[in-house]
Design a protein that fits this description.
By secondary structure, this protein is mainly alpha-helical. The protein contains ten helices and three strands. The protein folds into two domains: about 160 residues, no CATH class; about 120 residues, no CATH class.
């Protein structure tokens, strides 16, 4: 190798490494941006994620307790909890509540998107540094259901405002900036990642090896995203306001993040498979060249 070729080869190797490091950063950003657009800011995707939450026993228990406590507090009648709690629990487990849950989440999602995108909505309130949405419309249906079941005292239940916390307002500006950046980059991040992978392979001295390493870098970046989700989940649940039931918050968080976990699993599986195939191809090609070289050097009879 000439004196000029050696520095050139080193620069190509260094550039390939830099591009692969960028890939490790871009892959989690790409997955998160696509997930945020398809699930968090898209109403259909959001509803598909949260609809099953209504049938979760922990969520049902938390909602039943919240509704029962609110009704009992407003009626202020001795022994009313025993009359109200059972019907409320049955209603929360019914198909009628599942429909109300979907409708409430559809409205809440429109309001949530308005907040995180900075467009705003008058239906939201900010109290004690917590952004909340009013879901008191459910009370009217519960009141009628209780009356239909013979709990006549339920006629005294007034229209009640029930604020359901979404997140702390201290993080509102940060959330707007993050979601804005992710939304703008949902096409840019994946495209940049593809360009970097192609560039790293193109400038590499051994392209099969570079391709295998690139696939492993994709898997590494995806694995880092999984680690961030696990840590972020723990921090999120630890920082919940006292007004938010921890069990219900955990179920909702897991339901929203479930599509992202599926994407992580798919990307890791494909990336590892590609790395194995390219690695085996490189190994087989190297052995084939070795055999051909030995045959060429062996003396002819």
């Amino acid at each position: 190798m000439s004196d000029v070729a050696v520095p050139a080869a080193r620069w190509r190797s260094a550039l390939s490494v830099v591009l692969l490091v960028v890939v490790v950063v871009l892959v989690p950003l790409s997955l998160t941006a696509r997930w945020a657009h398809a699930t968090v800011t898209n109403t259909a995707g959001y509803l598909a994620a949260v609809q099953p939450v209504a049938s979760d026993p922990e969520v049902q228990a938390a909602i039943s307790d919240r509704i029962t406590d609110t009704i009992v507090g407003r009626l202020d009648v001795p022994g009313v909890r025993a009359l109200v709690q059972g019907p409320v629990e049955r209603f929360v487990r019914s198909d009628a509540f599942a429909s109300l849950w979907t409708a409430a989440n559809r409205e809440a999602h429109h309001q949530f998107v308005g907040v995180v995108t900075g467009e705003g909505t008058s239906a939201l309130s900010v109290r004690d540094d917590t952004v909340s949405v009013d879901v008191g419309g459910v009370v009217a249906s519960i009141r009628q259901s209780l009356v239909d079941q013979g709990v006549t005292i339920a006629e005294r239940i007034p229209d009640i405002e029930i604020q359901f916390p979404i997140f702390e307002s201290d993080h509102l500006v940060t959330a707007q900036r993050i979601f804005g950046a992710l939304d703008r980059g949902r096409w840019l991040f994946p495209a940049a990642a593809i360009v970097c992978v192609a560039g790293a392979i193109t400038v590499a001295r051994v392209r099969l090896c570079a391709g295998a390493v690139a696939a492993l870098c994709v898997a590494l970046g995806t694995g880092l995203l999984a680690l961030v989700i696990v840590i972020g989940r723990a921090l999120y649940l630890r920082a919940l306001p006292a007004a938010v039931p921890a069990t219900a918050a955990r179920v909702v968080f897991d339901s929203l993040v479930a599509p992202l976990w599926h994407a992580i699993g798919d990307v890791v599986a494909v990336a590892v498979a590609v790395a194995i195939v390219l690695g085996l191809t490189r190994l087989i090609a190297g052995r084939a060249r070795s055999v051909v070289g030995q045959a060429a050097r062996s003396p002819k009879l």
